[in-house]
């Protein structure tokens, strides 16, 4: 079952990561207008953000494998419709926007179901290993997706690229949909209000998620201003920095289940705080090679953080509320990074690049390490996180 779960998540992550690059290239071919591209991408993002809390409710009311199945099948149909239209020579921005909105809505309903599916499928000491494998698979998918999407669009055409994405969603749907869980029928009222009550009862979760939001916002600043600053060291330097981050993240994911974890939330806080390093390196600014090393270290911390966070949340949140609680987590993360990307250039134009980057570095360190003031954050690990795995 674990192998099926990992494969299904990898397929879904790859298909999801293909969409932005494919849509971007499609719109640029159709009109070449930045405004049209912004509309299409916003039509995917806005429904996702608005519907995520309701997706959490759905994930807690129904078996998570069925929710994941329907979400991936919906995205399959939307991407297939885009492919068929493009192959038929129909190139309407309005159609792309509507289908992008359907895709975003499906993401909103499918995303909260995944943590429940993992928690209901894998228990005890195996859960951290499972989350590490899923994180590794999804990280590799995200890294390879832009190149794959570009090759498909340029080699076979955007219509066939969209159909290939649809095929991946179909494969993911039937892989994850075939996972069988023993989750009991929900008891009580599965409402947004009850989900928020679960969050308020756990200060460690709320402060950690707000810290993650700061991290994602500042990551948007780094990813926007980084290429502008490091171009001074040569056009290839930003590519080197990004690849250094990729290597660091994969190393962190690989190391996470092998670390002697005592307090997992402390590990998450320290891992997130490492992102202050590349922000400060850019603010100085140090050489491109120094920024690459700093970014590799930061992404190593993120690689450790993700499987630890996934596991400790599943350990500490009741399974009947996990979908709603995690939808709030996803909402903060999904909303914060685009905001950082959007404001980076105006901030740099108003205050220069150094000041926003220094503020961001301090904010990441303070928000990440500030959670250590909450007593529950320092609580020793549950059995599933208590010892290193080899």
Strand content: under 5%
Count of DSSP H/I helices: 15
Form type:
globular
Percent of residues in helices comes to over 70%
Mean pLDDT: 85
Indicate the CATH topology of the largest domain. Growth Hormone, Chain: A
Number of strands: 0
Radius of gyration: 21 Å
CATH architecture of the largest domain: Up-down Bundle
- Which structural class best describes the helix and strand composition? mainly alpha
Reading the helices and strands in chain order gives HHHHHHHHHHHHHHH
N- and C-termini, Cα separation? 21 Å
Largest sheet: none
Under CATH, the homologous superfamily of the largest domain reads MFS general substrate transporter like domains
CATH class of the largest domain: Mainly Alpha
Instruction: Work out the count of structural domains.
Output: 2
Unreliable stretches (pLDDT < 50, length at least 5) are none
Protein name: MFS transporter
Subcellular location: Cell inner membrane
Transmembrane segments: 12-31, 37-59, 134-154, 160-183, 204-230, 236-256, 263-283, 289-309, 330-351, 357-374
Membrane topology: Multi-pass membrane protein
Note down, in words, how this protein is organized.
This protein is mostly helical. The chain folds into two domains: 2-176, MFS general substrate transporter like domains (Growth Hormone, Chain: A), CATH 1.20.1250.20; 192-381, Up-down Bundle (Growth Hormone, Chain: A). The protein is built from 15 helices and no strands. The chain has helices at 2-30, 34-61, 64-87, 93-110, 113-121, 126-155, 158-176, 192-200, 203-230, 237-255, 264-273, 276-283, 288-316, 322-351, 354-370. Helix 6 (126-155) packs antiparallel against helix 7 (158-176) and helix 6 (126-155) runs antiparallel to helix 10. It is globular, with a radius of gyration of 21 Å. The model has no long low-confidence stretch (mean pLDDT 85).
